[in-house]
Amino acid sequence: MKHIPRKRFGQHFLADPAIIDAIVRAIDPRPGQAMVEIGPGLAALTQPLVERLGRLTVIELDRDLAARLRAHPQLEVIESDVLKVDFGQIQQARAATKIRVCGNLPYNISSPILFHLLPFAALIEDQHFMLQKEVIDRMVAAPATADYGRLSVILQWRYAMENVLFVPPSAFDPPPKVDSAVVRMVPRSESAPVDADLLSELVRVAFSQRRKLLRHTLGRWLSERGFAGAFDVQRRAEEVPVAEYVALAHELAAPR
């Protein structure tokens, strides 16, 4: 029985064999590795992955698709909203040092999924995601560019990222109205852990009025916190490199 894509789940199923093969080669799955696929759908990517891995954990919200996937003897199916999944529990269940994560993420909730995975970065070897190309452009953007923003800073603090593959709308059924791409995200080792909530808050404040100088936004926020250190607020938020935001978060968190 043919599955009808559901708009409320943002379902666009990958159907181009050449693109599927290119994604699998980019991921480079090896036998025995602990991997989690988010949103396996009709298993276009799932099948070539599990053939190479031997076993695969998949997270699927659609109960009809989850039921189909359970019939596969090499799949462990978690029927759930991925935003409610504890990836630490998956890592423990697979008895793995680290897990690998991949998937064709629903474009309507891609940013929340990326932020949900942040606290588990130390348990993850790498992530490969199909996303809207516009989102990946923002993720990998350099300072002083139009795409550089809160998403760029928060993700580049924690991951080394690379846009590895362009995917046209014609590769999907039904075709989305946007271009897509595949990003590789490799967690960075943290020599000195950052207070993620504090970093997120200061970056949010900084970019709240991105066309204004930081003295109007972050400058006031720092003054309210009694910050007496040196930080140039005569710049716009997009001009500040990731390392400077991270250094500021460290300085704010340090005992006075």
Quick rundown:
The protein has 256 residues and is an alpha/beta fold. The protein has 10 helices and 9 strands.
Would you write up a description of this structure?
The protein is an alpha/beta fold and 256 residues long. The chain has two domains: 7-187, Rossmann fold (3-Layer(aba) Sandwich); 196-253, Orthogonal Bundle (Helicase, Ruva Protein, domain 3), CATH 1.10.8.100. It is 34% helix and 20% strand. It is built from ten helices and nine strands. The strands form two sheets. The chain has a seven-stranded mixed sheet with strand order 4-3-2-5-6-9-7. Strand 3, helix 3 and strand 4 form a beta-alpha-beta unit. The longest helix is centred in the last third of the chain and has 12 residues, at 242-253. Residues 1-10 have low confidence and may be disordered.
For the report, how would you describe the main beta sheet? 7 strands, mixed
Strand sequence of the main sheet, in spatial order? 4-3-2-5-6-9-7
What would you say the CATH architecture of the largest domain is?
Answer: 3-Layer(aba) Sandwich
Order of helices and strands: EHEHEHEHEHEHHEEEHHH
Summed up, the domain count is 2
Kindly identify the CATH topology of the largest domain. Answer: Rossmann fold
Report the top-level CATH class of the largest domain. Answer: Alpha Beta
First-residue to last-residue Cα separation: 65 Å
